[in-house]
Amino acid sequence: MFRLLKLALSPAVWLFGRPVVRGTEHVPSSGPVILAGNHLSFCDSLFVILVLRRRVTFLAKDEYFTTKGLRGLLMRWFFTAAGQIPVDRKHGAKAAASLQQAITILEQGKIWGIFPEGTRSPDGRLYRGRTGTIRVALATGAPVVPVVLRGTDRVNPPGKTLWRPGKVHITFCPPLDLQKYQGREQNLKLVREITDELMATLARHSGQEYVDTYATK
């Protein structure tokens, strides 16, 4: 089903987004990898999924699986076909269980994708990252590749269903060197510092203004 999804959606993605992709050499051809990106639009994960050869599994908010109507049906079909994992961000225990699923994905040698901001940017700025990405990285030893997206908010503006023609830039940055910190995922101060380093990398390469507060829906 995943291959069918890519075949069905690739023409629209290339027609509307005309993606310019850089840095794919930073994504290993095998083994566990964490892709951590900025989040501008609903279509961010779609572009990342379709420009890479390897399959990427994202954590997706559970609303994408429970929305009613035709739009909800289409979203549910896409996220299910793409093998994405629903996460209930309102309940800490359920969110923690989703992170455990992410660990399982990485232990299987696969790619896990995450948007550390936790939600789409409400105004185009980059917001403070949540620490789950780095906690999982230190627990599993998986490399973290920062992914910078630009232009997706013009192709599919927040709150809009219809796409607009534009140009999307996707840059896979060199992975963060976290080897010396492996196994220290319980050190909250360290995890916070590395998360801030990750967000600084995303801000530097995306050109977004950084806001040191969490984004709200």
TrEMBL record:
The keyword Protein transport does not apply. GO terms for biological process: phosphatidic acid biosynthetic process. Keywords: Acyltransferase, Transferase. InterPro entries: Plipid/glycerol_acylTrfase (IPR002123). One of its GO terms (cellular component) is plasma membrane. Coiled coil: none annotated. GO terms for molecular function: 1-acylglycerol-3-phosphate O-acyltransferase activity. SMART domains: PlsC. The keyword Cell membrane does not apply. Residues 33-152 form the Phospholipid/glycerol acyltransferase domain. PANTHER family: 1-ACYL-SN-GLYCEROL-3-PHOSPHATE ACYLTRANSFERASE (PTHR10434:SF11). This is 1-acyl-sn-glycerol-3-phosphate acyltransferase. It comes from Kineosporia babensis.
